[in-house]
């Protein structure tokens, strides 16, 4: 018992006591019926047991405490009194539904029990009194079946088989063709089966039925599908579900009874107007089961104009009241309309924008409201082609992984990046299937329609690259086994029980993570006018600048199209994997002396310069931040004997020499090895070459476009102290100074900043800021080092962490505020203390994550930078962060 | 020019203006002569140019600023005036020495110039006036030679060849047999050679000579051997050297002149009494060069009792004054004694303890002073056998690496851990030579006399393990190349230009990092009674508890012998590599299901239990902290095809299955992978088995020794948040609770604590402390993650970091106060806020490092834990930390 002074916690609320604001306590369902009750709408009476009661149920080891019980009984008594009906009273029985309802909609994830309160006495009396014994027995049959399943977890198949057997025996097709006697016999069979499986009789006491049903609904919060759903949607496990107990009304009681569901607007297109379907003389489950074909909601106008008018009036009122498109359930009992539920309706991304835009025009929403009404995830989905829904329904599912980069793609399977290039060049459409990807695979990924990897999570190499280049990607598909031919080439793979060979067609859904056999038709991305309109409002409201991570002119152009205000991160090494460059970079790496190294760098210089020129051109004067080479050099060197031989031939060294270089470059923990600015410390020539390329490119572009603002920004990765930055800054300053001295026609300031991506850099940010004009938080690496979680390896244990509630969410997906966030916040504060105008941003994958963007806004950072396809979502999220409102979770 | 208000910085001090406290400014030499001057001792007059002047010299780009110059000239004028002599004045010439002198002694690392002020006119006048032209010409010859070398950097060999040629020509053996004319001719040759090499005449102007000499001494601060010496001794590069200019006195002027060096006590044994040697009619360099054999200092008593008495009187006074053994240089000029230098003398570890102990008895030092007078590094050296110094002098040096574990060892070379075991079992003494070591090599390392690795630094696997088990180890020997036979077995290696084959004898010096060919005799560790006495004082003064990291009963016994008060870290996995255990742990890892895993754990349980019992027995009731299994599981699984086949046979799985397990366990960055408590999250059965073994062992030992305090302490590694600890604590509590419930005869409390070794754990320490009774800072991992430096890989770039002054010291050797230290300090504060009696310690390698121990004392931690051989040094350092005084750096 929890007392606060003399006050007892309230665990049960009558509908008339609640309202829409009490969603956290009453759940979506309970808050909805309470609000409708308050609005004077026809809602069957009832009460809601709160989510707190559910939490206590679990805290108390799976029992309902006496104080909660007594509150339930009080509410029940009051309900019975007001209705003049009693549970289990054959003269005037009260029947109730017992429904789950969480704070956010978790459709179909938890349990519901209808027709509770029936037993043999009640059924018989009810059949006699209504003159409809068939209905009475059918209701009882349904209740026994549902209770056995939901409350007792009995094997459903025996019940279903009994119905099928009886129908066969009677020679009828449909349940509705069974007579009252048939249904009575069937119910008896069910009751026997219950007793056989449970070991005691089906409870006749409706109060016992009720309490068991309430517990079963509480328990359903933790059934596997509900847990899975929460994990997928970042819903905390400790919220619990409310339970709503409501007087039953019956759509299957008579010909003028019925039931239906409706949306106030078309959830696919967003077009205004009632959209839904109904079925007369039916219960809700009949609409769903598909045995009888429901009618479009518009037909109700002819069938019962009075009810239809009343309903449309209610719909308008609800939409205006909730200021959003509504998804409603209703029942007509003997010609009288009852509202059973209303909630903000789920909708397609297209519809979301259309509805938001229309609601502003209709004066229902402000522009701010409209911006906040859209889940930023929707935005990304809009930018990619999608599978045709009908074609998808026909597809054969092969397996599923994480939806690591959105979109939809079909292609023929290849197992190497080289094949992806070759096959595409000869006109094929391919899907690249790999254990995981490495930087060497980038060109192949670029050619492929989509990428499938057996390993890796949301921030694996494959995922990051795929999102960056807008390729659909599915990662971490468990159960993939590769088969090799005699030479060790992969020639096929098993995905679960299906085998896929090279050249077979498969299809990837980057929005769901599902993998299908064969080729599935897609529909192109369709961005309605509403999209641009709402995004325009978002841009007006947001404070954070939104930049893109882009490595190629194509990425940059894409980013600009998506509204990026600059490039926050150019990963120069991504350019190195192009065929002409990779040879030069390898020559540089295997150089035996300073002279060879310089020669190789001299080859790279013009290539890098032209790369940067193209980026500046693509960005038309917007700012471009170039990061110095970051990955360990061994990433550029192939390790197979053939490749070593080839490299030896290219560079004029012998293979033993190359093998030795490869050997020496090998690292035990490359993520914490010789990379980032550590390369520039060892090989300052590389930093100088890159600085030269950046500044010469900027000068060339500035000369061509004198009105553009072209200011080179060079970013130093992975620093741990001020001295590193200072040393490299000297190299850059000297190089840049010499170049600018010879370009007197151009006025240009080169800014030098640093990434803050080691914990130490964050801790010593005050010193580091003395040498840095901007900080870009590399939250991927910072997360890795703060947790000691390797992105590449953590997937192997993170599932256990979620299962055991040790982590709520993937820290690589949503910024860990308490740990990594502490370091960012400290660094921001210390950095600005040293340099008040220090520019601060985030360029890790978190830069595109709405939750993380909200945190960046709280910290007052200046910008976020993310992959081009996440830019529009980031713009929206940044606006929402300013407006202080998060979009509702609808998925 | 640097002004502070109207005040000009003082860059030059007369001897009479300085004293011993001004060592930082005047250098050791300058402070010493100033102090002796102040004490009224006979010191030739002069002045010292400060270390600040040197720093300015470098800041100003290698020139001496006008204000410093004018201060030098002023001091020179005053000196000339007081002596009535002038530089370059043939009538009464002043000759000076120009000597380097840093804050701490850097013997022989920097340059010195003697006899400055000579030119042809002065020499001739001097020869005539003293009637000793031979001396005059010899002095000039020496000066020209020294100036050419030190100031101009000319090739020395030509000068030396000229002397040899002349001696051959004259048919004499010794320089002293050359006549004044010979020496004049030789000097002319030198002057010609100078002009030839430099392109202009040797400077005749003594003031020019002086200024060039001062600059040369400044520059010698940055000569390669000085830089190397500073790196080895953690001396900051920005201190600079002072320059002392002093009137020359001449030990080679007459038969009653002479020069010598002496210690106030025997620097090898510490025995009280004058110890040293001298040579009449000679200059200092003659004593060192070995051309003439110097006499023991005691002979001076007969030769010149007056001077001897004066000298012994001065020595006693100096020792009493400095309260330490003194190392002095003196010169006798025509029967008159001059003191040229005094400083605290270097000594062997044995001598250090003897001297400290004696000085207390003599009432010169307090016990506190004595404790603070000893460098903790000395202690470790005392615990290991050492090479016989004479034998070592004969040895052939093969190469050198880092001295990663002290001691001296000779043995025959083997290249695999298996061979180390096998050869030793058949009676051989072996040195294990590896590229680097892995946990699989531990047994072999244990059998070997010493370990040599081509890779790795002070905290590499080889180093950590070797120190832990007291094996001598040399790591990171560059230039080692292994050669293999046709089957890929290593059969030999080249160290530089020498080739070593399997079975060849080599010797390792773990105190210097040097590797010698052949077998070198050793002398056993000799710990005098003074050692125990001083350590006893240290124990009384220190506040920090000192524990040991020990994994076996043998380690534990060793640790106890060295004064460990408990075991702060048992790495349970080290036991797993023993033959009987490794099979069981591998069975556990490859278990296909829960049942197989449980079966394997059931096999491990009694082994672990008996391991822990033996540890408790060895520690006789002192506390023992057991860490749950920490390394990634793949460390236990061999990867070669043969080993996989063997494991398959042992476990009854097929090889493909084992290969698949190996494959799945493989990690890109194992240091940040599936290890530490992450293993216990995935496999809670392992944590439960280990907890059971710990507690059952404790109960058994407690029953045998009821008076011992046996309280199990279980430590959870690598947490990132409270939930991990909470989950594992539940597993342990449940297991332990059940066991204790059945052992009602024993009263026992099991403490559960955690390592703080991820940055996140430090940041969230307040939450974590809610579940932890103690924190042990795992500073190795914490340093890795805070810097993003992999211990295994950082060696490849850290040298560049030192060369470029980006890091002063290896953060794995000395705790990084500003970065890692911030996290420790924060965690300590937050942790204690949650739990005021939280026990705090360090169990990384830093736990044995005096600098880091001082930091632990500052933070008020409760204990440090280090490898057994570092325990006595840690005890001493902990006392020094309390006393707030660091031992002088003498090496």
TrEMBL record, chains A, B:
Active site: 461, 843
Reactions it catalyzes: pyruvate + phosphate + ATP = phosphoenolpyruvate + AMP + diphosphate + H(+)
UniProt keyword annotations, A-Z: ATP-binding, Kinase, Magnesium, Metal-binding, Nucleotide-binding, Pyruvate, Transferase
Keyword Magnesium: yes
Domain Pyruvate phosphate dikinase AMP/ATP-binding, first and last residues per copy: 24-304, 309-356
Positions of the PEP-utilising enzyme mobile domain: 428-513
Pfam family, one: PEP-utilizers
Enzyme Commission (EC) number: 2.7.9.1
Cofactor requirement: Mg(2+)
Cross-referenced NCBIfam families: PRK05878.1, pyru_phos_dikin
UniProt cross-references to InterPro entries, sorted A to Z: ATP_grasp_subdomain_1, PEP-util_enz_mobile_dom, PEP_util_AS, PEP_util_C, PEP_util_CS, Phosphohistidine_dom_sf, PPDK_AMP/ATP-bd, Pyruvate_phosphate_dikinase
Main EC class the enzyme belongs to: transferase
Gene Ontology molecular functions: ATP binding; kinase activity; metal ion binding; pyruvate, phosphate dikinase activity
The family this protein is said to belong to: Belongs to the PEP-utilizing enzyme family.
Residues holding substrate: 571, 627, 757, 778-781
Protein name: Pyruvate, phosphate dikinase
Binding annotation for Mg(2+): 757, 781
Record-annotated PEP-utilising enzyme C-terminal domain positions: 531-881
